[in-house]
Design goal:
This protein is 7% helix and 22% strand. It is mostly beta strands and 82 residues long. The longest helix is centred in the last third of the chain and has 6 residues. 1% of the residues are buried.
């Protein structure tokens, strides 16, 4: 399969990956290289769609939902996030 490397966003601990033209409904997993040398493929824990079990790949999904949360978003910096 194809591979693309993720990158860390500064010191945030957040990793990202942008894959242009990834196919709608395409399947993917994250290949994790452990400090112990182990290499494992993992499903995306934040995926909105997956393969039908017992298969475990994540599936690309583009939502057509329209958010109506402008008021909440504009005030969220005033609230305690914890």
């Amino acid at each position: 399969g194809n591979e693309a490397q993720m990158r860390v966003l500064g010191s945030t601990g957040v990793w990202e990956l942008f894959w242009p033209n990834f196919p709608e409904g395409g399947l993917y997993k994250f290949r994790v290289h452990g400090a112990d040398g182990a290499v494992v493929d993992r499903a995306d824990p934040m995926a909105f769609a997956t393969e039908v079990p017992p298969q475990t790949a994540s599936r690309e999904f583009t939502s057509e939902y329209t958010w109506n949360d402008e008021e909440w978003m504009s005030g969220r910096t005033l609230r305690n996030p914890v």
